[in-house]
């Protein structure tokens, strides 16, 4: 059975993330502690583990919009680092749509700016590969 490379990469990313999410993440960690641990994992290229910490932020603290936006940006950035440009683009665009929604002006501006920068880099990378959007 043959599978296209993007499908295999997406499956591998999900498997790694699901394996890492099985790791014991202490239930009493604050959003800041979860984000710190995620960043430390990402710095060590333990992307599955980092994704699990960021997903924990999204699941445990959905009303802490500053932390949610930070986690959403970082998840998209990990996908970008893994060269999963289609999924990263979709995540960055979803993040940017938060800024256009009611209350978006109260969100941390730095994640809007960073998302726009990385989207520009994705466009440039796809253009070099002969794949324009």
Instruction: Using the CA coordinates, give the radius of gyration.
Output: 15 Å
Helical percent range?
A: over 70%
| CATH class designation | Mainly Alpha
Instruction: Supply the CATH architecture.
Output: Alpha Horseshoe
Q: Please tally the β strands and state the result.
A: 0
The main pleated sheet reads as: none
Please identify which CATH superfamily we are dealing with. Tetratricopeptide repeat domain
CATH topology: Serine Threonine Protein Phosphatase 5, Tetratricopeptide repeat
Fraction in beta strands:
under 5%
Helices and strands, in order, run as HHHHHH
Low-confidence stretches: 7-12, 14-22
Descriptive report:
The chain has 133 residues and is mostly helical. The protein has a single domain (30-128), classed as Serine Threonine Protein Phosphatase 5, Tetratricopeptide repeat (Alpha Horseshoe), CATH 1.25.40. It has 6 helices and no strands. The chain has helices spanning 5-21, 31-43, 47-60, 65-81, 85-100, 109-128. The protein is flat and about 45 Å long. Mean pLDDT is 87; it is low at 7-12 and 14-22.
């Amino acid at each position: 059975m043959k599978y296209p490379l993007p499908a295999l990469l997406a499956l591998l990313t999900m498997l790694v993330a699901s394996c890492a999410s099985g790791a014991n993440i202490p239930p009493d960690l604050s959003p800041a502690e979860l984000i710190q641990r995620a960043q430390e994992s990402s710095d060590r290229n333990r992307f599955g583990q980092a994704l699990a910490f960021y997903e924990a932020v999204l699941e445990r603290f959905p009303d802490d919009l500053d932390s949610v936006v930070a986690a959403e940006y970082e998840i998209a950035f990990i996908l970008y680092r893994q060269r999963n440009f289609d999924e990263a683009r979709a995540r960055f665009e979803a993040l940017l749509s938060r800024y256009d929604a009611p209350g978006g002006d109260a969100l941390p501006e730095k994640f809007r700016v960073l998302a726009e920068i990385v989207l520009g880099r994705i466009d440039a990378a796809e253009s070099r590969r002969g794949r324009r959007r």
